[in-house]
Amino acid sequence: MKKPLMMLCIVWVAGLFGAAYAAGADVARLQGEWAEIKYKQPREAQAQRFESLARTSGELVARNPADVDLLIWHGIIESSLAGAKGGLGALGLVKNAKKTFERAIEINAHALEGSALTSLGSLYYQVPGWPVGFGDDKKAVEFLKRGLEVNPEGIDANFFYGDYLYRGGDFVAAESFLRKALKAPARPGRVLADEGRKGEIEDLLRKIAEKRR
Asked: Which of 75, 174, 186, 205 qualifies as a FRET site for 198, CA 20 to 30 Å off?
């Protein structure tokens, strides 16, 4: 009796590792395709590519509903699609992304170094407020700061808080967080994303320099 039971346990554990590996590979593929679309594709081509990627990420989430990393990336892709489409027609997409991030936070707020917290915070300051949308500066600060608490040295956590401060006219504080973002440790397997984000940071720093002249 012991041998079959042991074999059953081995098969079960192997299945868990296999599922985890598959989900990890799916996340890496979504990350890579997202970065290629955002930083290599012309603006006019991004909406269609993000729409296709959102279908893929949605299917992956449907098959792996408990995988918080896939859930977070589905939300990131949804919000990126909304940004590429723009206008009032994108509000449905950002509302869906908001729900996706909220669900991810309920599962594990620290997953992917607090990415759901930072991403939700960025939605709150970029989306229009009531009655058009759900934008809310207080909630933006709350979630952006929670993201920084989880990942104080991270490039995205510092970039988005710096961007929020810039939009609010606090150029001194914004520059401080943006320069910290530039010094963030490289993310394994995220070379294109890191390069693209640094380009956005440098553009924002140039705008700050112009406004402070």
From this structure: 75
